[in-house]
Write a structure and sequence with these properties.
The chain is an alpha/beta fold. The protein has helices spanning about 5-10, 25-40, 75-95, 115-125, 130-140, 160-180, 185-200, 230-235; strands spanning about 15, 20, 45, 60-65, 70, 110-115, 140-145, 150-155. The strands form two sheets. It has a six-stranded mixed beta sheet, with helices on both faces.
C-alpha cells in the first residue's frame, strides 16, 4: 500500500482524518482522543509547595486536579495545558485497558523545572538518593518514584511544547507500571506505548526517555507517528 495514494487508501477502506489517510480504527481512536482532550479538566490554581518540592524552598506555580498536581517554573496557563493532557491520557488508558475502579492509579505529582541547576537541587533536597545515585541522575532528564508517584522533568529553559507532550508520555509510563507491576518493561514496549499516547493526545512523538541530557529535541524525530508508515516504507 502507499499511504500517500488516495486511490489505494480508499480501496483499502481507510479514512481521511485531519488531512491524513489512515485505517478506520485509527481514525476513530484519534477522534476519541481529541474528544477526551477537549473535555479534560485543566485544574485550579493552588497555593504553596507540594510535599515533593517543599524541601527546596522554591516558590513555584502550582495547579491541581482530582488525579494530578503539577508545579514548576511555568505559567498557570502552561500547567493547565499539561494537566488537560495528563487527564485525557489517564482516561484513555483506563478505557483501553478496561481497568476496574480498584485498578485506577493513585494521584500523581509532576514537577517541571527549567534548568540543570534546579534539577540538581531537586535531587539533593527532595529525593532519598544516595550520593552515587544522585550523581548518575544529574546526567539524566528527570527522576521518578512510583510509590507515592512523583516525577520530575527539566529542560534548558521553559519549553511548553515539551512539557505538554511529556505529560502524556510520562502518564502512559506510570499508568502502565501501576497496572502491570512490571518494574523494568522492555524499551520497545514502554517507549512505544508512550509514543502512541503522546501522539494521540498532542499530535507529536518527539519526547522520549532515551534522552540523557536536558530533554532537547533531535533532528531524527518525527513530529507525529502518522508519518512512520511512510518512513518505514521509504527505508
Amino acid at each position: 500500500y502507499d499511504p500517500a495514494d488516495a486511490g489505494w487508501c480508499r480501496a483499502a477502506g481507510w479514512e481521511k482524518f485531519d488531512g491524513d489517510w489512515m485505517p478506520k480504527a485509527e481514525a476513530a481512536g484519534r477522534k476519541r482522543a481529541a474528544e477526551l482532550l477537549k473535555r479534560a479538566d485543566g485544574g485550579e490554581e493552588q497555593e504553596g509547595a507540594t510535599d515533593a518540592t517543599k524541601a527546596a524552598g522554591w516558590k513555584l506555580a502550582r495547579r491541581g486536579t482530582k488525579n494530578f498536581t503539577f508545579e514548576g517554573r511555568y505559567s498557570q496557563g502552561d500547567l493547565e495545558g499539561f494537566l488537560q493532557v495528563a487527564e485525557a491520557s489517564r482516561t484513555l488508558f483506563i478505557e483501553i485497558a478496561s481497568l476496574e475502579a480498584q485498578q485506577h492509579p493513585a494521584p500523581m505529582t509532576g514537577v517541571f523545572l527549567s534548568s540543570k541547576s534546579d534539577h540538581a537541587k531537586f535531587l539533593e533536597k527532595c529525593t532519598p538518593l544516595e550520593e552515587d545515585e544522585r550523581e548518575t541522575y544529574k546526567t539524566l532528564g528527570g527522576w521518578t518514584r512510583f510509590n507515592p508517584t512523583v516525577f520530575e522533568l527539566w529542560t534548558n529553559g521553559p519549553l511548553s511544547s515539551y512539557g505538554r507532550e511529556a505529560s502524556a508520555h510520562v502518564t502512559a509510563h506510570l499508568m502502565f507500571q501501576s497496572w502491570t507491576g512490571i518494574a523494568e518493561p522492555p524499551a520497545w514496549l514502554q517507549e512505544g506505548l508512550a509514543f502512541w499516547f503522546s501522539d494521540r493526545l498532542t499530535e507529536s512523538a518527539l519526547v522520549r526517555c532515551t534522552d540523557l541530557k536536558s530533554n532537547v529535541y533531535g533532528d531524527d524525530r518525527s513530529l507525529s507517528t502518522r508519518g512512520w508508515r511512510r518512513r518505514i516504507l521509504d527505508a
